[in-house]
Amino acid sequence: MRWQDRYRVTGRLGVGPMGEVVGAVRGDGVPAEVAVKLLRRDLAARPGTGRLLRELVGRVHGVGGDHLVAVWDSFCDGEVAGLVMDLAEGQSLRGRLAVRGPLPPAGVAATGARIAAALSDLHRRRFAHLAVKPENVLVDGERVRLTGHCVVPLLLAADGPDAVLLNSPQYTAPEIPLRAPVGPPADLYALGVVLYELCCGVPPLAGRGATDLVHLLPSRPGGVPDALWSVIAALLARNPRRRPTAAETAHRLAAITDSLAGLPAGPRLPEPPQPVDARRGRIGGVLAAVAALGLLAPGPAAVQAAPPPPTGQAPSS
Questions:
Q1: Are residues 73 and 95 in the same domain?
Q2: 48, 176, 194, 250: least CB-packed within 10 angstroms?
């Protein structure tokens, strides 16, 4: 049965680098109104695409709720392949950031807690999202929902780590260019990048290449409270084993949200503060200054680090 025989398209919702999204209607126990992500033809035509889609959807079928857009079905009809998911209302976090600029600290923490809760749901099923970025977060009032969680795992299975790096270079964890195993910790690094961007309007390593991901440690932008920065810094640890889990992150961010209420948003920065090079010290600075701050010293897992780092300090490596 062709996919058009199962779904009646009602209109185009958007287009992105992996394909387009259309609204559709169907029955059979699946929500009547759905969104269908149609993959690019070159992706759909690859051998094994249908099988990989079925495997991926089978692992997360119907997993959704307040923070995650549920995926219900997949299809691959010759040169047309796609995913069927909840029809989610709202604006992308990318669009909101472009219009409104950085969020107040309480808004950053609350948004991050909801994204982390969605990641926790996926990670409990041993499923890594691998495309956590503002474009894949939908905001509708106070509701925040994560989407886009099957396409990049499909590319990873077919193309390896380069697929992740090319899809989201600014949100790529350092272990990915090193060809290390890719899993849930990569999602937590990407979440740290998103939270950093929500604080100041720019990713921590904007304009840098893949090689820089391995050596550079993001610096703290001004105006980020200690409690919030301690979470972001933990997420941005270069060593994936030093990052907190999604469940831990959701708990920590939810716990500090009320204490951040009333604090103003920081300014939108044209570029991030100079990062720290773990090999040479702060770019343009000296290694001794970095060593004095303890940036290169080994220590306990970043999620347990205390007290919070002072302004300008980079996350633990």
A1: no
A2: 48
Which residues neighbour 73 within 8 Å (Cβ) at sequence distance 6 or greater?
30, 57, 83, 84
Task: Give percent of the chain above pLDDT 90.
Answer: 48
Q: Is residue 67 part of a domain?
A: yes
CA distance 115 to 205: 21
Q: What is the mean pLDDT of residues 279-293?
A: 43
**Torsions phi, psi for 81 (to 5 deg):** -135, 150
Query: Is residue 172 within 8 Å of residue 164, measured between CB atoms?
Result: yes
Q: Are residues 116 and 9 in the same domain?
A: no
* Better-predicted residue by pLDDT, 286 or 162: 162
* Domain shared by 80 and 100, yes or no: no
pLDDT at 130 over 80: yes
The residue out of 86, 106, 130 marking a domain boundary is 86
**252/225 same-domain check:** yes
Which pair of structure tokens corresponds to residue 22?
């259309």
If you average pLDDT over residues 71-94, what whole number do you get? 89
Q: Domain for residue 310, yes or no?
A: no
Burial state string for 134-170 with b = 16 or more CB within 10 A and e = fewer than 16: bbbbbbeeeebbbbbbbbbbbbbeeeebebbbebbbb
Query: Is residue 81 located within the same domain as residue 162?
Result: no
CA nearest 120: which of 255, 213, 252?
252
| 170 in Cβ contact with 206 (< 8 Å) | yes
Structural domains counted in the chain: 2
Residue type for position 163: A
Pick from 183, 308, 170, 299: which is nearest to 233 by CA?
308
Q: Which of 78, 96, 83 is nearest to 41 (CA)?
A: 78
